[in-house]
Design goal:
Elements: H1 2-18, E1 23-25, H2 26-32, H3 38-50, E2 54-58, E3 61-64, H4 81-87, E4 92-94, H5 96-100, E5 112-118, E6 125-127, E7 130-137, E8 145-150, E9 153-158, H6 160-169, H7 177-187, H8 198-203, H9 206-219, H10 223-235, E10 243-244, E11 256-257, E12 262-263
Parallel strand pairs: 5-7, 10-12
Antiparallel strand pairs: 1-3, 2-3, 4-5, 6-7, 8-9, 11-12
Helix pairs in contact: 1-3, 6-7, 6-9, 9-10
């Protein structure tokens, strides 16, 4: 009976993979086999996990391992994150270093897969050495999110301008301002502040905008790009007040950049 059970579950998984899917929820399995004992169904899944055919990426949610990933036994999160977030019924976008990869910033490969979602805590998840790190925001700025195609469909990714701002805002989470500046240096040719909507200034905290402008302008030398940002700040009435370049660090004796109102309390060095 167990052999027959295992065969049926295995073939159902093969069928959904042939239809182009690489994920499924446990409740789908229960619906597919309503007359079968749930414990027996879970046992069948566990055997397939041990064989390296599938693995659990979240409680009640599984990824099917395509043959090209069978040696490592794990699927890159970018291939299943959209389905996972739909399963969790949460809006999201790929952010920070994970987003920067979509725009060619590969100088420093991320060790985590970074996701922004709405408030209501989701714990970071580590599966087979891959960490999905969740950052919470009050709301997702839909107008600043773009769709990017992957092997399995489309995913939500922050636009280059929001990616840059998030890197500056969450600099501690990605390794500090030096690392952020290195990534900004690679992102700069994809950033277009000239047409950035008002939503950007409504969503991104003003001090983050000042710091971003300062880094692009003074530290990295993208003067034209930074001036476009400054012009948009004036157009949308973004107030300018003094802010430290590095949060939670003393500003005693530090000079202030008059153009960006940034108190320069951190020395920036980037990797070439």
């Amino acid at each position: 009976m167990q052999t027959e059970q295992k065969y049926k579950v295995r073939n159902w998984i093969d069928d959904i993979q042939r239809r182009g899917r690489i994920t499924f929820a446990l409740k789908e399995l229960y619906n597919q086999f309503p007359l079968n004992n749930k414990v027996a169904l879970k046992n069948a899944l566990n055997r397939l996990v041990l064989k390296g055919r599938i693995y659990s990426v979240w409680q009640g949610f599984y990824a099917i391992i395509p043959i090209e990933y069978s040696v490592k036994g794990i699927v890159p999160p970018v291939l299943y994150i959209d389905n996972l977030m739909k399963y969790l019924n949460r809006p999201y976008y790929i952010s920070l270093l994970s987003a920067s990869v979509f725009y060619g910033a590969t100088h420093q490969q991320p060790q985590e897969f970074c996701i922004v979602t709405t408030s209501g805590s989701l714990r970071s998840s580590i599966k087979k050495g891959i960490k999905i790190n969740f950052t919470n925001k009050k709301e997702i700025p839909i107008g600043l999110i773009v769709k990017k195609k992957t092997k399995t469909g489309y995913v939500n990714v922050s636009c280059p301008e929001l990616t840059a701002a998030d890197l500056v805002q969450y600099e501690r989470e990605v390794g500090g301002l030096n690392r952020v500046s290195t990534i900004l240096n690679e992102l700069a040719n994809k950033i277009k502040f000239k047409n950035i909507p008002k939503l950007f200034f409504e969503h991104v905290p003003a001090p983050v905008i000042y710091r971003s402008g300062y880094l692009l302008d003074i530290e990295l030398g993208y003067n034209t790009l930074a001036n476009e940002l400054l012009q948009k700040m004036k157009e949308f009435g973004c107030p300018m007040r003094k802010t430290p370049l590095k949060n939670r660090k003393s500003t005693f004796g530090c000079i202030t950049n008059k153009k960006w109102k940034v108190i320069v309390n951190e020395q920036i060095e980037i990797d070439e």
